[in-house]
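Thread: quick sanity check before group meeting

JM: Hey all, I'm pulling together slides for Thursday and realized we never actually wrote out the predicted structure for the chain we discussed last week. Dropping the sequence here so it's in one place. If anyone has concerns about the input, flag it before I start.
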Amino acid sequence: MLRERAARIQTDRRGAAAVTVELIRLGTRASALAMAQSQTVADSLAKASGLPVELVPITTEGDRSKQSLSTLGGTGVFAIGLREALRDGRCDVVVHSLKDLPTAPAEGLMIAGIPKRADARDAVCARDGMTLDTLPPGATVGTGSPRRAAQLRRRRPDLEVVDIRGNVDTRLGKVASGDLDAVMLAAAGLARLGRLEAVTEFCTLDGWPTAPGQGALAIETVAKPDRVVRSAVASIEHRPTRLTVTAEREVLRILEAGCAAPIGAHALLDDGLIFLSARVYSPDGTEHITSAHALYLDDDPRPAETVAAHVARELLSLGAGELVPAGSIS
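JM (edit): ok, ran it. Output follows.
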């Protein structure tokens, strides 16, 4: 049993005493959503390892600031504090929402596990049970995502899109109080918090692609974690999710796209194929470019990366770089 191995003193090849971990410390943001999704991971790690798992709440730069995510720099503002805690030994693993994680690898760290993905769709939470099509002209819709803002403006240019920050309850509260007519949120987050009753419409991924990696979690460790930690994390890895989110995020990496680039992507596996579609929007939503490709998994040693390269190169050849602010796409 892993518990027995973790609790006893072992001897290495040189005869020196080596003690394995007896407790796994899991670093997480302190928001209600982050704590809820991290607790799910903690339960899985505890079951796999036979060890207690302790949540270590960490406040990140993105949590402290009240500025819009695009002003802060978007990608990475929630990851920096967690990674610092991992590097300085305050925790053994950290849990990220994968869509918030930079695509560039972090020195000395690795994404050791990606559990099975939850719902990747966006959800509309509107007053009076309304949908995007039934909201009246001039209705106010809140979102902090440049991608969602561009999609809203394309779908309903008559709506007023309002930039908002705050946790899920704060955003839903703006609808309940009448400050906004609707907000756009990730379905996965609402499900993890038990708030799906607030949803008035789910957006289909075909017509409304979401952020690369949305709905998935990433478990990050140091590059050479304790073997008990490594084994526990490996036990909850979901390879199909790893393949699909890798393809989606690889599009961002190749495009060198940041938070100011409104990009949606969605990949799926079916009958031995990986399908990937990505769409780049202009910030005002008036224009968009789409590319989609498929590849047999057995035809390439790195199918996710290869299909993403086809999609990203086609997007660039079609003029994706002209749609978004300078510097957002190479």
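AS: nice. The longest strand covers residues 273-281. The CA atoms of residues 43 and 265 lie 30 Å apart.
JM: adding both to the slides.
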